[in-house]
Amino acid sequence: MTTLTVYASDGRVGDTTTDPAVIATMLGGLGVLYERWRANRPLAADAGQDEVLEAYQEEIDRLNADHGFQSVDVVSLGPDHPEKATLRSKFLAEHTHEDFEIRFFVDGRGLFYLHVGGQVYLLLCEQGDLVSVPANTTHWFDMGANPRFKCIRFFTTPDGWLGDFTGSDIANRFPDFDTFVAAPHA
């Protein structure tokens, strides 16, 4: 279940919610877009990029009208991927982007950490969740030791994903994906 948990920067746990409307409102106050999308047709687990994009075309077109994407693609990662540890480590350190980062979870799940205003917001995204992290927002992402997700990625620059790492060790002070999802609230 999609879950938002707010922590103080020192690790004290604050509010937790699973209500999509509350999540959208809380994140909206930070400038983060959170939406729930539904496919316009059933998708098989092995659906390829073209089929996935067609199933969400109306939502993609609506979002594109606001942002003007250079490219949209689908990425999928499973627990048997030979480079899963390397790929996971790429996103675990706190970073920013010059542009917003938008991900839509077609399937599976992942954990976004947003470090804003002295708090850290842990957003467990699952199938149907779209999150858009604003430019220059400090954040990181964890897909877990055995990832399973399929996401639509949206890029407004030809270079795609470019992170500017802060050098902070803050990510080490919060539960990783596997610990978070094993907790009773998740």
In short:
With 186 residues, this protein is α+β, with helices and mostly antiparallel strands.
* Name of the CATH first level: Mainly Beta
Structural class: alpha+beta
Termini separation comes to 7 Å
Number of strands: 11
- Uncertain runs with pLDDT below 50, 5 residues or more? none
Mean pLDDT: 92
Structural Rg:
16 Å
Commentary on this structure:
This protein is α+β, with helices and mostly antiparallel strands and 186 residues long. It has one domain: Jelly Rolls (Sandwich). It contains 5 helices and 11 strands; from the N terminus they run ββαβααβαβββββββα. It has helices at 20-28, 49-55, 57-67, 84-91, 177-182; strands at residues 3-8, 13-17, 33-36, 71-77, 95-96, 101-116, 119-126, 129-133, 138-142, 149-155, 164-165. Strands 1, 2, 3, 4, 6, 7, 8, 9 and 10 form a 9-stranded antiparallel sheet that branches. Strands 5-11 form a two-stranded antiparallel sheet. β6 (101-116) and β7 form a beta hairpin. The longest helix has 11 residues, at 57-67. The chain is globular. 30% of the residues are buried. The model has no long low-confidence stretch (mean pLDDT 92).
SSE layout and pairing:
Elements: E1 3-8, E2 13-17, H1 20-28, E3 33-36, H2 49-55, H3 57-67, E4 71-77, H4 84-91, E5 95-96, E6 101-116, E7 119-126, E8 129-133, E9 138-142, E10 149-155, E11 164-165, H5 177-182
Antiparallel strand pairs: 1-2, 1-7, 3-8, 4-10, 5-11, 6-7, 6-8, 6-9, 6-10
